[in-house]
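Work package 3, deliverable 3.1, input record:
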Amino acid sequence: MEPLLLPPIPEYHRFDVYEAHGGYAMLKKALSMKPADIINEVKASNLRGRGGACFPTGLKWSFMPRESAKPKYLCVNGDESEPGTFKDRQIFEHNPHQLIEGTVIACFAMGIGTAYLYVRGEYKHWIDLVQKAVDDAYAHGYLGQNILGSGFSLEFVLHRGAGAYICGEESALMNSLEGQRGYPRIKPPFPAQNGLWGCPTTINNVETIANVPVILHIGAETYAKIGAPRHPGPILVGISGHVNKPGVYEMPTGVPLLDIINSYGGGVPGNKKIKAVIPGGSSTMVLRGDSLEGVCMDAESLKAAGSSVGTAGVIVMDEDTDLVKVLWRITHFYRHESCGQCTPCREGTGWMEKILKRFVDSDGTYADINLLRDIADNIEGNTICALGDAAAWPVQSMLKTFRGEFESRVTK
Amino acid sequence: MSTGEQVNGLSEGNLRRIEERKARYPQPQAVLLEALWMWQDEHGWISEEGMRYIGDLVGAPYHHVLGAVTFYTMFNRKPVGRHKLEVCTNVSCMLRNSERILRHIEDRLQIKTGETTKDNRFTLVEAECLGSCGTAPVMQVGDRYYENLDTSRVDKILDDLK
């Protein structure tokens, strides 16, 4: 498959290079279409969100009220903080104009006048790169008032976070953007009815939006045939941990995990065996290295395997990895990032971390194993947002899949 | 950067930028994080004086600003060294020996994680995932990422950070 999100064209991040290779042609095309037809095209493409939840993008767009007395907003989610995930950064660096073009098309389709791109605070360097692209797009009339004489206007505002994983959760992101603590909101109401400043809002991931010009360019029908039929399109897969060639690779959905690890990722150093793989960022359920045969990078295949595609951040662990320590580190992260609103998550993540530290120090008990499981079960589903679930799933899956690793650390 | 001395307000340029930014949002409070960034860039850390000043600028009471500053981990609530070394130790970095990087810096600077060197040159902290897993281990210093670290590269980086 020819790369559609990260084309290997030198200096593609520059406005003139992007435009010379057909960039912004789809914006022009979109402005001549009916907004409802654009949404239908995105629906027909079967594009599903690339931020972790795999929600159908066209359907999400159709939730936005056509007529609204209040302003409508698009938030592009570039908070990218899920451990093992480093793909949106590639778009910021190598293809920011496609992100901008997709944003304009999305806003035109939904009748939105202001788009905010929220980027994690640590990415200051990449924020500056994207700001340059935004400035160029404004200077050439692709953003701002009366875009290309169409009568459609769009303001594009970059917004920098300040260090908080939870702000990748869409309702926390909105609170953060409003200048508050990044506390997730109770849903319903959903953002399409009551989002930023109480106005209709859509939140899409950076990579999702970068797919939009592609759909208009090759057509929904062709797009829907790329990769896995129920979760089609190009996908940016990040490979990290114990592989020879870590990095972000663009591929169609549906590539077998073993190909991703061995071909794209260059295999495991020292030809060691794979003990475990976290397929979609640290929140997704861990898979055994000896059960990867036939498992592919798409929503349906990973679901069948007992995990999920998440943000497609594949973390590979070789046979010598101390999984108890890995789980302790993951749980430390969720304890650190829990916003503190919901008791099960705020307290439970702390308890899980402390218990896991006992196992790291080979000081656990059999009762601790059950206690861990019990705490995780009581966090899952009992919190305002999915961070609680994200903290529970690694614990539940690790205990289920690698129970022996924990039992071997029991000393009393 | 921090000197501990009383410094008043923000530069003219930043004050102007804040007003420009306010025009891009329906409510001025949306500029809070950006205004706090400006304060931290100018003063190195965010004091109570700074929070009250920024609160007045964006129309937020002190307790609200305090709530934000204590929520977002990138804001320094006390003075830090000229260079804040933030070493990622999350899973992907851990699998590629970030712990050794952290220990090496501690040994070299003779401080523990969370501390600042006596000459006020470095503060060392542990960071959560920085989104650089493909080039692990990584550390952030200011706006810059240093990737694919090993101990000799760390030595060179520390030598160069005056």
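Chain A touches chain B through 56 residues (CB under 8 Å).
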